[in-house]
Design goal:
This protein is α/β, with parallel strands linked by helices. It folds into 2 domains: 203 residues, Spore Coat Polysaccharide Biosynthesis Protein SpsA, Chain A, CATH 3.90.550.10; 65 residues, no CATH class. The strands form 3 sheets. A 5-stranded mixed beta sheet has the order 3-2-1-4-10, sandwiched between helices. The protein is globular, with a radius of gyration of 19 Å. The termini are far apart. The mean pLDDT is 90. Belongs to the glycosyltransferase 2 family.
């Protein structure tokens, strides 16, 4: 029998997990199973942007033994639309967004309970890489045009990594949290209108952090919460992933800066990045760089470029 204290905890910290998948058969079972390990996770919704039969088979097998799991195959809606769709399918006071290549070691509801004692509007625990690296992997300094230009030359990790000691107890305010793991109250998510669906992939979490700043901002709890096997989905479509991320950056600038400043910044960053990465022979290839530059330029002057297929 469920005790009164358990019922109270459910009503306060029951949580729904949204997993937006794309060709995720290699990691989806571990991800979903780790979410289900928390008894206060009352829904795990998998939105499959690839309509991948292997992913569907794995999730359906889990759902046969656990009624909390739901699966929906969709055309490639993009990350933001997938998150919003999944969130609408959860009827819980808290909502979590978990990448399909994340395996949790601790309960999502525990993170919600910890966040509830702070003034932050969105929170996450530390995600480690497969090799065990943990320092700031899933948080960054706030976006700025200067930092973005520096990142072209120095790399985003060096420019955006926060400077704090890993051993510090409790919470730290950060500029933004990576979308690989996010927890917040459903009411807060609804209040800001969810993710902006103009961001098909990447910069969705950057935009979310800006939108949530007025409601308390982003906090990182200095406790390892799981492992992120990063890039599992993007590696299946590297060309598209590279291009769509650059277009999303143009949209972020257009949304948060004045028209001419956004256009100047977008074009300056795009051209500098194209030249620097071409000279360095970066692995995305010349074809991806050329298409990214072309579509970024088009997005500046004629917004609404469609990249995802």
């Amino acid at each position: 029998m469920t005790s009164p204290s358990q019922l109270e905890e459910f009503s306060e910290h029951g949580i729904g997990a949204v997993v937006v998948a794309y060709m995720s058969a290699g990691t989806i079972e571990s991800c979903v199973t780790s979410c289900l390990a928390d008894p206060l996770t009352t829904a795990v919704v998998v939105i499959d942007n690839s309509s991948d039969r292997a992913t569907e088979s794995i999730v359906s097998a889990i759902a046969q033994n656990d009624c909390r799991v739901r699966y929906r195959a969709v055309p490639n809606l993009g990350f933001s639309r997938g998150c919003n769709l999944g969130a609408a399918m959860c009827d819980t006071p808290w909502i979590a967004f978990v990448n399909p290549d994340v395996v949790l070691d601790r309960p999502l509801s525990e993170l919600a309970r910890a966040l509830d004692t702070t003034s932050f509007s969105v929170g996450a625990g530390i995600l480690q890489t497969q090799g065990g690296r943990a320092h700031g992997i899933n948080c960054r300094l706030s976006f700025s045009v200067r930092r973005e230009l520096l990142a072209v030359a120095m790399g985003p990790t060096r420019v955006y990594s926060p400077r704090f000691a890993l051993g510090v107890d409790g919470w730290t305010r950060v500029g933004q949290l990576a979308g690989a793991l996010l927890v917040m109250r459903t009411a807060t998510f609804q209040r800001i209108g969810g993710f902006d669906e103009r961001f098909e992939l990447y910069y969705d979490d950057v935009d979310l952090a800006v939108n949530l700043e007025a409601f308390g901002g982003s906090g990182l709890l200095h406790v390892p919460w799981g492992t992120h096997f990063a890039g599992q989905s993007s590696r299946s479509v590297p060309h598209m992933s590279y291009v769509v991320g650059k277009v999303s950056r143009v949209r972020f600038l257009a949304k948060h800066y004045s028209r001419w400043r956004a256009a100047l910044a977008a074009l300056s960053i795009a051209v500098t990045e194209w030249a620097a990465r071409t000279l360095a022979r970066r692995p995305e290839g010349q074809s991806a760089r050329n298409e990214a530059l072309r579509l970024q330029t088009k997005e500046v002057f004629r917004p609404g470029v469609k990249v995802l297929k």
